[in-house]
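Researcher: Next sequence.
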Amino acid sequence: DLRPKNRTQEKETTQQKGNRGHQAPTEGAKAETH
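Model: Next structure:
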């Protein structure tokens, strides 16, 4: 149960990071690497 919920949150985080990456690709890539 916790896994599917975490996956949904992870997807949202990825989308938010992607949106930020468009403005700051360097920061987005660094955040994704971490």
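Model: The mean pLDDT is 61. Residues 5 and 15 are 16 Å apart (CA to CA).
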